[in-house]
Specification:
By secondary structure, the chain is an alpha/beta fold. It has 2 domains: 209 residues, CDP-glycerol glycerophosphotransferase, N-terminal domain (Rossmann fold), CATH 3.40.50.11820; 182 residues, CDP-glycerol glycerophosphotransferase, C-terminal domain (Rossmann fold, 3-Layer(aba) Sandwich). The chain contains 16 helices and 12 strands. The strands form 2 sheets. A 7-stranded parallel beta sheet has the order 3-2-1-4-5-6-7, sandwiched between helices. A 5-stranded parallel beta sheet has the order 10-9-8-11-12. Helix 2 packs across helix 16.
Length: 431
Amino acid sequence: MNQRKTTRVKLLLQASLSSLGELVVAVATRTIYLISGFVPRRKHIWVFGSWDGKKFADNPKYLFLYVYHNHPEITGVWLSRNKTILAGLRARGYKAYYMHSLRGILYSMRANCIIFSVGVSDVNLYTTNGTKSVQLWHGTPLKKIALIPIPGLQTPTSKSSCARRLIDEGLRPNKKHDIVIAASDENKQTMRTVFSDAREIAVTGYPRNDVLLGAPWLSKLDPECVRRIKREINYQFLFLYLPTFRRKVSRELNLFARYGFDGTTVNQTLRELNAILIIKAHPYFRAHPYDEQTDPDSEGARLERIFTLSDEDLPDIYPLLRETSVLITDYSSAFFDYLLLDRPIVFAPFDIQQYTTTDHELFFDYDQVTPGPKAKDWPDVLRLLREAVQNDSWKAERREVCTRFNKFHDSNSSERVFQVICRLLEQTTPE
């Protein structure tokens, strides 16, 4: 009995110390935030980051590269939590620092502009008081979004400690957006419903689409995984399957065996079409969309034309999208960007009723904005892939939807975003 009491006391003490530690950290970081508002900002220093500081990808990546290659008057600094990414960027001559390092903090405190794709935690929230905030986001929304908590990130819960609730209610800085970008006027209206506090929503196009359209300032960006595949096998067509993020992923979710995926049959169809299939799950799937028993790569060499890539293999899908012959997806907003290439899309909304009922509502009627055939299962996907490479009959519909959701069909989106930021900073050329 005494031992039980002792254990309980120890646990309570540990919990109290943990809460006290959280509170001390929160007060300290809030103090840093307030102090950072008094540090003089330099107009020519811009700080970039993406995906909670864990990836070098998406719109901030391509704007960062554009600024580096085309505007040497700007000091662009990439911040990250990933030391492997930082080492790779520094080896290529870019300024890149750990976001909580001394240099990372100093650059954050001197920067006049922060640029990100998810939230301010992509860079360093606690040093951004007094900066201009540019939200580049990560796609044209098909799904209704409400800035939901992302799996794996720190988020408050109803069972949070008193200290945690205090932090989230009063001690965590609330950084609003000066600029949010959009790809079209239609897109601008949907973004306005999400970022209602934004000072401006600018229709510029997405910097990441510059790679799809062959921006001359981008060097060859074939991902290593594609170079490896090309060494292993010759093919004519590359099919890419991109299932979207689901908030309510469970072990019951299986987008493969449940919908008739048979590895041998798929592989044989790929041989007949001289094609390969690359499967890339969303980075924030709580679990793989397939388990070990139904992993399409589990049969090894016999399925030599099927490849499954993790987020570690391919953190940035856009160089791969440019290489893709036919896109297969369900509700991923990447298809709006892919329309710029005017290539076939096979839509695979296997679970649309469940998805729109229990996971995400959609901004639009699905059939009205998805210009391609709809598959009910994997045998249907294979049939439609064969049709797509033999007779692409959806060109007119694709052009109509592309015009609606992509105002610009060139490789100058990064330059337009750059000019919008310069206007925000009330300058034409930085000091």
